[in-house]
Amino acid sequence: MGQPGPESTPTPVASAPDTDQQAIERARRSETVYRRLSLVLVLCLVAVVVFFSRTLVPWATAGIEGAVQDFFTLSISVVIESLPFVFLGILVSILVQVWLPPDVLFRWLPARPVLRRMVLSLLGMLMPVCECGNVPMARGLMLKGLSVGESMTFLFAAPILNPVTIITTQQAFGWDNGILFWRIAGGFLIANLIGWIYSRHREPHRLLTARFEAACTADGSRHQPHGKLRQSVDLFQRETNTMMPALFIGAGLAGIIQVGVPRNVLVTLGSDPWWSVLALMLLAFVVSICSTVDAFFILSFGATFLPGAIVAFLVLGPMIDVKMLALLRTTFTGRTLVQLTAIIALCAAVLGWGVNLAAA
């Protein structure tokens, strides 16, 4: 195996891996609570609006039954189409993280930095894990000796360049409109660009939080108190608790937007080659839906938004969103996350605008 670059040796800081692990668990619990509260608030808001509309302004709700039916039809269809792929991703994630020996993943990495990062960006082909599972996996790669830039390349490419994401995108959009190609190409190029930028950082350890920097100087192989079967069950429960609320919230938001936003507004915004890209990028950042199901979520917008906007949504969301920022904060400093968000957003916007101009 090629030797990692000089940026992979951080300055020691007094801390302990157990403390870092506690920070990860707190972030996961906070994310789970946030998603459950968001789901409850969305449902309560819909119920309150419907109740007061029917009670106080009955004449304004003449077509409410049809709108509610459309909302549930759209939302449930997204959930039903997505569930098989969500569970497939969870099961393969367990196989990779628990049962596969870690050395197998990067035993044959090239020594040249550029080729090394390119191969790392393609590791997602072997690990169909959404961005939620890739954060701890990228941390594990750094603990095993990979540099910060190399781990970033894997982190941002893997959610897009994995078989489950590719299959779901193909099922949603097919091969004809170029959305699948530009999603794969865009994810690969942006991830390798980020890896190259941060591989040239003179003090890469300053990109990391103090807790994780200390973990990198300690033994990365933690003792597991339970057997592999127990680890698998715990990981399945954790991944399910993380992904299911995201799926239901995303499906509900898709239904609300499709039913609540006037059709002419969607058509006007979606047909503009510039604003359509920015609008769906903002949606991707806020909705924070998993990369293995986001293609089904955005499919309902395909008839009103240009292909470049769809591509920007499918590229930006798996790399940087509200959920990812919360998870990444356990590893990278706030300044680093601001830089990463700006770079990824700019690249996704340029990609989306380029696809729109090419399709014009």
What is the string of SSEs from the N terminus onward? HHHHHHHHHHHHHHHH
Q: In which range does the helix fraction lie?
A: over 70%
Q: Into how many domains do the coordinates divide?
A: 1
| Mean pLDDT reading | 76
Largest beta-sheet details: none
Describe this structure in words.
- By secondary structure, this protein is mainly α.
- It has one domain (about 5-360).
- It is built from 16 helices and no strands.
- It has helices spanning about 15-55, 65-100, 105, 115-120, 130-145, 150-155, 165-175, 180-200, 210-215, 230-260, 265-270, 275-285, 295-300, 305-320, 320-330, 335-360.
- The chain is globular.
Concise summary:
With 360 residues, the chain is an all-alpha fold. It has helices at residues 17-56, 64-99, 103-106, 113-121, 131-143, 148-157, 163-173, 179-199, 210-217, 228-260, 263-270, 275-287, 294-299, 307-319, 322-328, 334-359.
